[in-house]
Amino acid sequence: MEETKDTKNEVKQNLADKESQLNEVENTSETLNKLKQAEPLTKTEKDYEELDNFYCQIQKDYEELGNSYIKVLDENKALKITEILAKECEKFSTWIEDQASNSYGIRFNELTRSEVLALKLSKAIGQGGYGTVFEAVLNGKTVALKVPIKGCEIENREFNQEVEILRRIRHPNLVTLIGACPELYALVYEYLPNGSLEHRLSPTNKESLSWKERIKIAAAICSALVFLHNIKPQPIAHGDLKPSNILFDLNNVCKLTDFGISRVLKHTEDTTTFNHKTNEPKGTSSYEDPDFVASHKLTRRADVYAFGIILLQLVTGQDAIKLRDHVFQKLQTPSDDINLENFQRKPVKMKKRILEKFVDANLVDWPIDEVVKMTSLGLRCSNDARKNRPDLVSEVWIEIESMNGFASDS
């Protein structure tokens, strides 16, 4: 750990040194330009020749320093990514140890048809594209039983493959699959009794989320996506990320659910795609990556798009339909200003007045800088062009965690 700290300090110092050297060379270059353009009354041909040689050397030094600076930047970025993943692994390991004493443990139940039919069902608690979710009791514990809609076409091989993948996934912000019945294509999940993010953001919900809680929710979702997107040997894309699929357990920890269209991804030379064909996107339109809709190729960036829309909802408390356009309109800034650089130049009082036009009215005492940061992040993540969306680990997670750390300290 001490060695990592030393490496980090060394990279930071290198970064600062290179930046300082670049500034010095740039200033020298500007001075030389001014000398070359000055009145030639006092200059000889030799003076000009020396100036040109010096200028060429300075330009060469500048180019070499620039390349060196980029290399150090890359080292700094790589170090940040390593630190992030290491931190997530440590958090995940601690959570796994805690699971040994929870109500379910991490044992997987392979259920027969008769065992599923014998389960005591209380009530229907959800409906999705795959099927209906019922509250049920398994081995004396309350669980969520998902059964397919009548007439739903499911391939046995595909179902078994998906179960084989999901039964091994354990993360504090992902719902745990604790059982399955191949005969009935039924799935048994841990029970999450405290409602959905959709309900908590609803205008009719009187128990509004605080800004601190919203940041923690954003961090939890991002943590789950980082985990899914970096699973070895092949990553997983959720594919249907939306507030109704984000539920809360007894301790108000939010978890991603409904992996109905999630798929294991494989790497190709040009993209990360389905490991098999899909006929059509089955997500929810307002959260669907436009590139996914056009190409039917699911990538991890599709989850980044949906996450961006959810970030905007956490800020505004509004429905997802055309939310991105609505935010840009209220910000009074061009749609290509996704970093909100023009907006940031406005006086604080003016920024607050503009933000009040779309920030959730149920929010009180929200910090202007953090609201701007989350809004900008939401706009960048939900960019229509997949290639222009930020990287989840090296960009999105770093910003979310910085806000989450500040919220935890306050």
Automatic annotation (TrEMBL):
Residues 1-21 have a biased composition (Basic and acidic residues). Residues 22-34 have a biased composition (Polar residues). PROSITE patterns: PROTEIN_KINASE_ATP (PS00107), PROTEIN_KINASE_DOM (PS50011), PROTEIN_KINASE_ST (PS00108). It catalyses: S-ubiquitinyl-[E2 ubiquitin-conjugating enzyme]-L-cysteine + [acceptor protein]-L-lysine = [E2 ubiquitin-conjugating enzyme]-L-cysteine + N(6)-ubiquitinyl-[acceptor protein]-L-lysine. Residues 119-398 form the Protein kinase domain. SUPFAM superfamilies: Protein kinase-like (PK-like). GO terms for molecular function: ATP binding; protein serine/threonine kinase activity; ubiquitin protein ligase activity. Keywords: ATP-binding, Kinase, Nucleotide-binding, Serine/threonine-protein kinase, Transferase, Ubl conjugation pathway. The keyword Nucleotide-binding applies. The keyword ATP-binding applies. ATP binds at K150. Signal peptide: none annotated. It comes from the Eukaryota. Its EC number is 2.3.2.27. Residues 1-38 are annotated as: Disordered. Belongs to the protein kinase superfamily. This is RING-type E3 ubiquitin transferase.
